[in-house]
Amino acid sequence: MRADFYLIAKPRFLEEPLRLVCELARKAYDGNLWTLILARDAAQAEELDELLWAFDEEAYIPHQIAGTDDEDDLTPVLIATPDIDAPARALVINLRDEAFSGQCERVLEVVPADPAARDPLRERWKQYKARGFDVNKYDM
C-alpha cells in the first residue's frame, strides 16, 4: 500500500487546485486504474464533476458523482460526497479533512499551498506510516 502526498506549488495548481486532481484522475484512467475521489462536500464534488468535463478538450475521463445513477460500478472515476458510502477502489484521491481509513492499493493526498493547511497533513503522513503504507511526497 502506498500513500502519495502531492504538494501544490506550481502557479497553474495554486490558482486552481482541483486541476491537479483532474490531472491525477486522467493519469489513473489512462493507466486503467479505477479511481474513487473523496470530495470534501457536495459543492466540491459538483465543481470537480464540471472541471473533469472541461479541463482538457482532448481528454475524456468517464466519471460521475456517486449515487446519482445506477452505474457507479461501471464508471472508472467515481466522485463521492461524505454522505455516500462508496466502496474503495485500487486508487483513492482523498480531498477530505481526515486520512482515508479504508483498504486500497494507493491513496493520493493533495496538499494545499497554504502552510497552515499543511500541519494536519503531517499528522496524516504519520497515520499512513503507522498503518504500513509506503509514504512519498511530490512537489507539484
TrEMBL record:
InterPro entries for the chain: DNA_pol3_chi, PolIII_chi_sf
UniProt lineage: Bacteria, Pseudomonadati, Pseudomonadota, Gammaproteobacteria, Lysobacterales
GO biological process: DNA replication; positive regulation of DNA-templated DNA replication initiation
NCBIfam families per record: PRK05728.1-2 (NF004346)
Organism in which the protein naturally occurs: Pseudoxanthomonas indica
Name of the protein: DNA polymerase III, chi subunit
Family annotation (PANTHER family): DNA POLYMERASE III SUBUNIT CHI
Molecular function via GO: DNA binding; DNA-directed DNA polymerase activity
Domain of life: Bacteria
